[in-house]
Amino acid sequence: MPRAVRIGICGLGTVGSGTLNVLARNGREVAARCGRALVIEQIGARRDNPNCDTSQLSVTRDIFDVASNPSVDILVELIGGTTVAKELVRTAIENGKHIVTANKALIAEHGNELFELAAQHGVTIAYEAAVAGGIPIIKSLREGLVGNQVQWLAGIINGTGNYILTEMREKGRSFDQALAQAQALGYAEADPTFDVEGIDAAHKLVIMASLAFAMPLAFDKVYTEGISRICSEDIRYAEELGYRIKHLGIARRTDKGVELRVHPTLIPERRLIANVNGVMNAVLVEGDAVGPTLYYGAGAGDEATASAVIADIVDVARTLEAKPEQRVPAAGVALAEQGGTQVLPEEDVITSYYLRIAAHDKPGVMSQVATICSDQGISIEALIQHEPVAAEALVPVVILTSRADEASLRLAVSQIETLDTVEGEVVRIRVESLG
Amino acid sequence: MPRAVRIGICGLGTVGSGTLNVLARNGREVAARCGRALVIEQIGARRDNPNCDTSQLSVTRDIFDVASNPSVDILVELIGGTTVAKELVRTAIENGKHIVTANKALIAEHGNELFELAAQHGVTIAYEAAVAGGIPIIKSLREGLVGNQVQWLAGIINGTGNYILTEMREKGRSFDQALAQAQALGYAEADPTFDVEGIDAAHKLVIMASLAFAMPLAFDKVYTEGISRICSEDIRYAEELGYRIKHLGIARRTDKGVELRVHPTLIPERRLIANVNGVMNAVLVEGDAVGPTLYYGAGAGDEATASAVIADIVDVARTLEAKPEQRVPAAGVALAEQGGTQVLPEEDVITSYYLRIAAHDKPGVMSQVATICSDQGISIEALIQHEPVAAEALVPVVILTSRADEASLRLAVSQIETLDTVEGEVVRIRVESLG
């Protein structure tokens, strides 16, 4: 049997303590599957965590001790953030250590540079835990679907946002009410921007897109739209039309470039992914050979994320003495084999749209709207117009359009908004069939 | 760059031709991801297949030529069956070749022996394509979830059966009608026994259970019950109770042994897996760290299965020159680390049950049934008794029971069947919450 692999863990927050606890419970079985013993050589953490027992372990308050510890083979970065974490990871790589990280921001924003550095030093960076928690989606994209040209992928990759949308649909809550509930349950931060505005999802999306399309990480090119403007009435109207509203990260290969976008999306309720509720995550991947595949599970949580961290540790440990080319490359392909980062401008993205128009209850509104759409080459595929509520002058008109490019749609919407018979802004949400 | 890996493909049926076609289309990208060129050195097939082009390839009519060809590194076995295929694989292993196979029967029934032989010769056997077609479930169980103790798994792993049950539910068809439809569409064989009686599912189940529980393959210990006795009225009553009927393969870890069973099962319709329809497959895996995860996709088809074959080829190719311990072991752990094959006898399996009783429309039936159940420690959790159809003396009484062991349930059912007020056999189907 090969010698034990020596692990250094930096950060003892939720994921760090979860990793220690799972290793304490399942370490014997994990080592048997790995074919070598796993030893926690050192822990770097500014403070202890009462949720795990480190009394038998070597703990330092300076995480950089771990990066320079000659006895550490693998540094597990679980401190989060992109400043100290980046420095820590760089230092560890320069000292010849392999990296396992759960840090989506670090990979999405600095992955290109770090993968390059790792390649120079003959070590690897593993980051299964950075996307969709315990779901083995990185491994599936990078290895399981390696025979495919991925056509597109679409993921519910932020549990907080999915919880809020689920509460809004199931309980008729407003966004603010559902957010407050998520905060009370610890699913959302006091400042929820990162989750509800789609930044967290954008981090995860570019990581998946990079693997699916063998392209460098292009975080600054993602179009990102949050869910804070979704109203419960839109969820209800979507349902009347046979759709659910989900906050999706979508990446798609087109002739003109890759689409990279995070936004609320109407999807047909009969799709499996439309029925992924609460804090759960799921990623739907369409490969040219395999067709549609879906991966579902917990996207966060101490032990769910630890599950991914440990899977990475085992992968790295198994090939510790192997040659670099015998390991799966961090980026899915050697960096020299990556293509460009041509991302399709948002104006050129073509989808159907859900439009909600606040119209005066007068004859002729519908024909005016239809004419405007038609002039832009957009047809109306479905329409809901309920009876006006007594004593209210405005009726909501809900439309599903044919597929249109963003630029034409914007033009139509701005013309609709100038109609005398229409009040305020038109609500618009993209529609994807995912078929 | 390492030298090209040389592949020998035996069998040019659906999967063989699909593999050639996908490699012809995506070979360049696959090679880039693999880090080495892939060359099809030789094909062994008794006849050509008009669905793929072999004009530029070396084809032999004797598949054993491939097993003895010194230029072949990996033999891809796609001939099916367990006699010639076994001899072919044994010969190839003895000649130092790695094996990639889509043959579930071969692995389920002879895997223990073949893994042993492969270990002796320092080669590996990869079989992602043997379970659930293109879904990377083998990789997920063996690598992605390596940090977990899997508690249980439940899979829709036979597309033919799932198609039939879906047609019965959605269109109110009888089993015979749905089967005829499946045969007309090419989803079912002329002799459908293998699919509808659960033998195919049992093959796949033991392979997954072996990996999940690090146990030898135990095909002869699976309890198997088919779907040919499911009536459309049972599907309808299940729906009234909030359930779907699915043909599941279930493996569960218990203190007394592993449950291994394939049978029709009522599952709550709100579960994601209850909404997997048509020929699609899905596997739900509950790990102690990650919680529930689900993997969904096409369980059969030329290119979907080819996707899994190619993923295996790349895994083997990448570690061609690696040491055996640097590869993921075929059985998930070294054979010496496997536990026993203690399988829980079917009599000791505890689940809830759906019972349908044909009763005379007389007072007292319900109290008699309730007393019998109660005497066996079984309580009634839900009940449907519709008005009797005019001019019919028998009314269907449908019951969901509390959890009970098979032995107690059998006793209760046999007593119910002897009641004067009850006609014929009691229909019984297991119920699983999968929660």
Give a brief outline of the structure.
The structure is a homodimer of 435-residue chains. In chain A, 35% of the residues lie in helices and 26% in strands.
Describe the structure.
Two copies of one chain form a homodimer. With 435 residues, the first copy, chain A, is α/β, with parallel strands linked by helices. The first copy, chain A, has three domains: 165 residues, Rossmann fold (3-Layer(aba) Sandwich); 162 residues, Dihydrodipicolinate Reductase, domain 2 (2-Layer Sandwich); 85 residues, Alpha-Beta Plaits. In chain A, 35% of the residues lie in helices and 26% in strands. Chain A contains 13 helices and 17 strands. In chain A, strands 7, 8, 9, 10, 11, 12, 13, 14, 15, 16 and 17 form an eleven-stranded mixed β-sheet that branches. Chain A has a six-stranded parallel β-sheet with strand order 3-2-1-4-5-6, with helices on both faces. In chain A, helix 6 crosses helix 7. The longest helix of chain A has 21 residues. The N and C termini of chain A lie far apart (49 Å). At the A-B interface, helix 1, helix 5, strand 12 and helix 11 of A face helix 1, helix 5, strand 12 and helix 11 of B. Chains A, B: It catalyses: L-homoserine + NAD(+) = L-aspartate 4-semialdehyde + NADH + H(+). Chains A, B: This is Homoserine dehydrogenase. Chains A, B: Its EC number is 1.1.1.3. Chains A, B: GO terms for molecular function: homoserine dehydrogenase activity; NADP binding. Chains A, B: Keywords: Amino-acid biosynthesis, Methionine biosynthesis, NADP, Oxidoreductase, Threonine biosynthesis.
